[in-house]
Amino acid sequence: MHNKLIKAAGISLSFLFLLACGEPEPQAQSQAVLSLDADYTQPLAAAPVAIVPKPVSVSPLDGEFKLTAATQLHIAAGAEPVAQYLRELIGPATGYTLPLAQGDGAPSVIALVIDPAIEQDEAYELTVAPNKISLRAKNIVGLFWGVQTLRQLLPADIETNAPINRAYWPVAGVAIKDAPAFKYRGMHLDVSRTFFPVWFIKQYLDLMAMHKLNYFHWHLTDDQGWRIEIKQFPRLTEVGAWRSGTVVGHTYDKTYLNDNQQLGGFYTQAQIRDIVAYAQARNITIIPEIDVPGHASAILKAYPELACVEKDFDVQQHFGVFPEVLCPTEETFAFLEKVFTEVAELFPSPYLHVGGDEVKTEQWASCTYCNELMAREGLEDYFALQGYFIGRVEASINKLGRKIIGWDEILEGDVAPSATITSWRGVEGAIHAAKAGHDAIMAPGSHLYFDHYQSRSVDEPLAIHGLTPVQETYAFQVMPDELKGTEAANRILGAQGHLWTEYVRTPAKAEYMILPRMSALAEVVWTGDEGRSWNDFAKRLPAMIERFEQKGLNVAKTVYAVTSEVAHTQQGFQVILTSDMPNTKIRYTTDGSLPNHTSPVYKQPLLLKNGGVVRARALNTETGELYAERRLTLVDHLGLHASLEVLTEADRAWNTHPELSLVDGVLARDQIFQLDDWATFNGVDFEAIVSFDTAQTVQRLNLGFNPGRFRDFFGPTKLVVLASDDKSSWQPVASQDFTNDAKPQLGNSVTLEFAPVAAKYFKVIAENRAERFSTEKSKPVPATLYIDELIIQ
Q1: Which of 388, 390, 616, 732 is 20 to 30 A (C-alpha) from 547?
Q2: What is the reported pLDDT for 745?
């Protein structure tokens, strides 16, 4: 009630809540539906036309349609399921039943028409006139997508589940023609790392339907749990569906914990049939994934005889890549044939996903049977053995009348042309697959992995790593330029977004991670590469976010997070702040305080002569809501005026120029961890030379190694500084061993202070003798050393 009364007064509920309580916790549960019983007997203006994904064409018409209790449905033969869906969609908020029209003379009609003149299967045409809404399509699939557009023409509170007493529900006059750019429009969900209840799976499908997404990739098995009942192999769920604990935080951190809580669950075959039927009613095909031959810990816990080695297997409590792999024996292939037979009986999808990713070959290498098999089959290496394995599984699935989909690693073996490729390690796998005659689905982690952080804000909740803002997802181009105009272009079916759930432990957190990135994905695959722009999408997105909120969903607002650029000039640090959303102002501070509604408004680049702290938040000028904070800590030091030569081999996969980021004056140590902010050294010491044009006096050196939120990295075990005037003869300046440091933790940096030394060259060595647990090796290995800023004073 209060939500509606406040909005009727023109005040944002989120604004008032913010003033009273501060910003809400992103992970907070939001499943409860608001109780809405305000009196809406007064007329209401029609909602602006702000449809996501953007239709092919939208033409405004005069007038508006008024949906009332007297509105009737005129249904073409065969369109009854869509009519029933429409009734169920609008019934809770309106209380209307929408009876069938008696003849053609009803004064208020919604007509669902099957029109053979519309050629494309999923296309539709929607016309809203004062007395009639006409929705036309070739079949019920197109009608169903048209209903998703119609719901967005209704006021946002049509999404609520409580009745609203309103005289009528206005729909703006409009003529829409629409069709999808790509036939495969998908979302993935990992239920192995986190098991989600049936109600949430259905909610996920509802959100997909709302966005006109039509393929649900259901990742059902992995090292952390087996989630599908297989009647011939009951131990898969009796044993493989449960783990006795879960790592708290990240496996590779210095001090990780375990919650020691049993976690698991599985879907019965009856539940799966119910979910499949629910998806079919929404024109969504479910593609189940049974991941083989790697990611097999849960399988081997239940049936260790399928392994190549004798050991005590367990359902994994850590996250990462493990050596556990199925052995390519006849017993294994017979097992998998029976498993996939039951899976095929449950899922009518033309595809079954077989995984095939991140297969470790150490256990195959130590297996006599495997090496004899390779010699017998003429397999040159273990990649070929993996190809043999997938080929055997593919043959059994083909006998079931189905085709396989696999991650792009399966291209490393010999798979049949009927195999479809999910390209996750970039777009190259899809390009290679298409040129080789395989269908391919774009799924690059860079743009479409929604387990990544959504912004650089310090307010972001825990995520795996990486940065995939809404803008990054929206910018993705499905069709590679090099394939345009070629025969291979027809092999690119579309794209899909992914939610891996290592660090997504609740439905509310899952909502936060996918919304509104799912909206950006929908426009990428429905609207296509042509005819869309971020500025246009950003204007329509707030209306979509409001619909999510009306549904009680925990939608992320990090699309409003402030972005920044920093440059060091002779005058000091120049800071440029931007917001990619319309109707916003940026409020900022430089005194260390959190920006509020009275903080200065950013109008031009900031200049901080000696560094300092900039904190900034975007303010919604329509609602008064302040969003997530962007924080920058800038340090002026001698290193900014020096050149840095990194002598040790650095991992440049994410940070291509570590020698620049180490002396740019921008600290990453008080931020959420982003790989491209840090110089990464895998199991080796860090060694670098700092060079000045003229001799400089140095007496203090600070090296950052730990980010400020969520992560706990290993610091250097020893720090050494040497000086030289000729870069050949080095004199020790200072050193300190941190191996037995008296403090329980070093914090986020290490510091050496020493008597002032004047020199032109300084060598810095950070020794790394620490070890971390390796999931791949199942034993300790040299730790990775991450280094932030090398502060020289």
Answers
A1: 616
A2: 52
Q: Is 17 exposed, middle or buried (0-12, 13-18, 19+ CB in 10 A)?
A: middle
Catalytic residue among 217, 295, 447, 637: 295
Report d(CA 707, CA 534) in Å as an integer. Answer: 31
The model's confidence at residue 104, banded by pLDDT at 50, 70 and 90, is low
Q: Which amino acid is at 673?
A: F
Task: For residues 622-645, give the mean pLDDT.
Answer: 95
Terminal CA-CA length for the chain: 59
Query: Of the residues 23, 80, 337, 358, which is catalytic?
Result: 358
- Return all residues near 8 (Cβ < 8 A) that are at least 6 apart: 38
Q: What is the DSSP letter of 481?
A: G
Q: Which two tokens stand for residue 606?
A: 């900031």
Paired strand residues for 577:
564
Band (723; pLDDT cuts 50, 70, 90): very high
pLDDT band for position 374 (cuts 50, 70, 90):
very high
Contact 134, 76 (CB under 8 A): no
The model's pLDDT over 529-559, given as tens digits with 9 standing for 90+, comes to 888 999 999 999 999 999 999 999 999 999 9
Tokens of 571: 């005058």
- Cα angle, residue 218 at apex, residues 556 and 364 outer, rounded to 5°: 120
Tell me how many degrees the CA angle 567-569-574 measures, rounded to the nearest 5. Answer: 45
DSSP letter for 558, please. G
State the Cα–Cα distance between residues 572 and 583, nearest whole angstrom.
31
232 vs 5: CA distance, rounded Å: 57
103 confidence band (pLDDT: 50, 70, 90): low
Q: Where are the beta strands (DSSP E) in 376-436?
A: 403-407, 420-423
Q: Coil, strand or helix: which one is 623?
A: coil
**pLDDT, tens digit (0-9, with 9 covering 90-100), for 184-243:** 999 999 999 999 999 999 999 999 999 999 999 999 999 999 999 999 999 999 999 999
The alpha carbon torsion through 428, 429, 433, 434 (nearest 10 deg) reads -40
Taking the C-alpha atoms of residue 285 and residue 287, their distance in angstroms, rounded to an integer, is 6
pLDDT of res. 40: 42
Q: Is the peptide bond between 480 and the residue preceding it cis, with omega within 30 degrees of 0?
A: no
Task: Establish whether 358 is a catalytic residue.
Answer: yes
Token code pair at residue 260: 């020691």
What pLDDT sits at residue 525?
Answer: 98
Describe the chain by its helix, strand, coil percentages, rounded to 5: 25, 30, 45
**Annotated catalytic, 23?**
no
Q: In sequence order, which ranges of 608-648 are alpha helices (DSSP H)?
A: none
677 among known catalytic residues: no
Sign of the CA dihedral with 442 first, then 445, 451, and 457 last = negative
Mean per-residue pLDDT over the chain, rounded: 92
Pairing of strands 420-423, 403-407: parallel
From the candidates 157, 222, 502, 580, which is the catalytic residue? 222
